[in-house]
């Protein structure tokens, strides 16, 4: 498959695969790696959806944990094209596919209550947080709630997932109360949560949370996850993910 002008072929952080990326669009970060590792997945079969799929990093990482199918939903056509070419390069066309679509209408596009797992790495910042907005349209859409909100993502995930199915998000800790409130409002009972810290003694900067559609109450708080040692090398926990 062709890698177009301005694009590059990057490693998948410890995995044997490759991903097409470009400085012109939002590249994947450790958040995608952490979410793909955190979420429960069916090992042998199943149907998964990744909302706000971007260039397809989460579906690609999930492909190493499940033999099920993964459908990504992404609203930006350029990113859809890049993601599907990455999937082809990795010879995963039979199990992975990214479709162009709006998160808000994903269930109408893909079907209601058909999926075992839904993941989402949504825009983190509110649309009115202008001090953080990037002039690049691709970056702005990926980072800010200009085309979809947190509520849109949680509502859509609830519509897509089967009763008893899993829904998992990666977000910022400051949105925790919003996330919990919205998950319960849309019948996703929070079941597992983990805070991620850049280093020991620092404030948490990432939140991983998973819920079950129509699940029973009961939230498990997992041990803190620390990414870097003081010398900026990866911790043993982070290396275990990257070397899996």
UniProtKB/TrEMBL annotation:
Read off the InterPro entries from this record. SAM-dependent_MTases_sf, Small_mtfrase_dom, tRNA_Adenine-N(6)_MTase
Per the UniProt entry, what species is this protein from, by scientific name? Exiguobacterium mexicanum
Q: Which residues form the Methyltransferase small domain?
A: 34-132
Keywords annotated in UniProt:
Methyltransferase, Transferase
Give one GO biological process term: methylation
UniProt EC number: 2.1.1.223
Q: Name one GO molecular function term.
A: methyltransferase activity
PANTHER family, A to Z: TRNA1(VAL) (ADENINE(37)-N6)-METHYLTRANSFERASE (PTHR47739:SF1)
Would you tell me the protein name for this molecule?
Answer: tRNA1(Val) (Adenine(37)-N6)-methyltransferase
Instruction: Enumerate the CDD domains for this protein.
Output: AdoMet_MTases (cd02440)
Indicate the enzyme's highest-level EC class: transferase
